[in-house]
Design a protein that fits this description.
The model has no long low-confidence stretch (mean pLDDT 94). This protein is of the alpha/beta class. The chain is built from 17 helices and 12 strands. The chain is globular, with a radius of gyration of 21 Å. It folds into 2 domains: 122 residues, 2-Layer Sandwich (Nucleotidyltransferase, domain 5); 202 residues, ATPase, nucleotide binding domain (Nucleotidyltransferase, domain 5). Helix 12 packs across helix 13 and helix 13 packs across helix 15. Strands 3-2-1-4-6-5 form a 6-stranded mixed sheet, with helices on both faces.
Length: 396
């Protein structure tokens, strides 16, 4: 079974083609992408032409499904057919996720035109959080706001789901790994044995921390939009709501300009004044930039806040996991996140930590009660697997 995964951004289009064997094993046949995309329809046409030229896809019959890592839908989540209902849901929340929802809506329409009869499947980023306790989803706002959709949704769901499954495997809990694999088909089945408590830290261009019990999310740092939680690359992260009217009055800024600055000029970029890339900020800090050093401290402070929050909510932690670009490749930040947490049972091994970049491994010290892992994430593989499972479930 050949599954194409489409990842659409505001000015980008990336794809991966996977082939699944009868036992469920996956091989990536091709990957590619385009930047500075002005017309997503043309990018999709170019993708299909590229796959055909490479001999992977000669006709629509050579593709058995297309999976989309859709972000946020109004009144819709889960792993569902990418049809008119999904397009309407994306358009209903386009103002909350303007960089992703319009491109995904356009992409789904284009693929349905180019590949009639090929199943299209949407796996929403919010899907992993649909079983969170209600108290973890609610803001203290008027009921009318809540009914309009103002609540904590959570994002990076495919990544945190991958971590939930893989960390369970590394800890020898195949029962929990199986539970995670079946989530979107059957929901959480009753767990057996002692609870498995994982804090997953997806740290990259955008970052989030999620608490996971027995493979199911119990809370997350991102909320209504991907703009909240930790400081993002150019997005503000958590901010007191009073700041918006304050700067509008004090600086004389219209709402549209405040929104632009919060999404384009804030976060790591706004703090450092150097870059939105932590590698550049690290270099500036090493050269003596006080703002760059402060940016690293603020980022670590925010991450530690959420790690601590979920450690408390879970009543302990069996595994702390770092993933995504920063989590996988920045030993200094991992060390900063774990510093002085020995009373929580979190003790990092400096040598193991320094040696591990971009590969899977354990970096906890021998006496650490909490296992500390680096696990490279694979969101596209999660989307491909769930697309296969959904298609197969429709045949049964």
């Amino acid at each position: 079974m050949n599954i194409l995964v489409a990842n659409l951004g505001s000015t980008s289009f990336k794809f991966r083609l996977f082939r699944f064997d009868g036992a469920g094993g996956a091989t990536m046949l091709a990957k590619g992408g385009y930047e500075r995309v002005a017309d997503h329809g043309k990018a999709i046409d170019d993708c299909l032409a590229e796959l055909k030229a490479a001999g992977h896809v000669h006709a629509a019959a050579d593709l058995h499904g297309v999976g989309f890592k859709t972000v946020l839908g109004k009144n819709l989540t889960g792993c569902v057919p990418a049809d008119d209902r999904v397009i309407a849901a994306l358009e209903g929340f386009k103002d909350i996720a303007p960089a992703h929802n319009p491109p995904y809506a356009a992409g789904i329409k284009r693929f349905s035109e180019k590949l009639p009869g090929v199943p299209l499947v949407a796996l929403f980023e919010t899907a992993f959080y649909q079983w969170m306790p209600e108290a973890a989803t609610r803001y203290a706002v008027p009921e009318a706001w809540h009914q309009a959709g103002v609540r904590r949704f959570g994002f990076h769901g495919a990544s945190h789901k991958f971590i939930a499954e893989r960390s369970a495997e590394l800890l020898g809990r195949t029962d929990i790994a199986d539970r995670v694999r079946g989530l979107y088909q059957s929901g959480p089945v009753p767990a057996k044995g002692p609870a498995l408590r994982v804090v997953s830290c997806h740290l990259g261009g955008s970052s989030s921390v999620t608490g996971i019990r027995d493979g199911v999310a119990i809370g997350t740092s991102m909320g209504l939009s991907p703009q909240s939680g930790l400081p993002q690359n150019n997005r503000v992260g958590d901010l007191d709501s009073a700041a918006v009217p304050f700067v509008m009055k004090t600086l004389g800024l219209p709402l549209a300009e405040v929104e632009r600055q919060m999404t384009k000029e804030s976060g790591l970029l706004g703090l450092s004044g150097v870059s939105n890339d932590l590698r550049d900020i690290n270099a500036a800090a090493a050269q003596g930039s006080a703002r760059a050093k402060l940016t690293l401290d603020v980022f670590a402070h925010s991450a530690r806040h959420w790690i601590g929050a979920f450690h408390l909510e879970l009543n302990g932690c069996d595994a702390l996991v770092f993933t995504a670009g920063i989590g996988e490749n920045n030993p200094d930040m991992r060390a900063a996140f774990c510093a002085g947490l020995d009373q929580l049972g979190i003790v990092i091994d400096p040598a193991k930590n320094a040696a591990l970049r971009g590969t899977e491994g354990e970096i906890s010290a021998a006496g650490s009660r909490v296992k500390i892992f680096v696990i490279p994430t694979n969101e596209e593989l999660v989307v491909a697997r769930e697309t296969v499972r959904f298609i197969q479930s429709q045949k049964n």
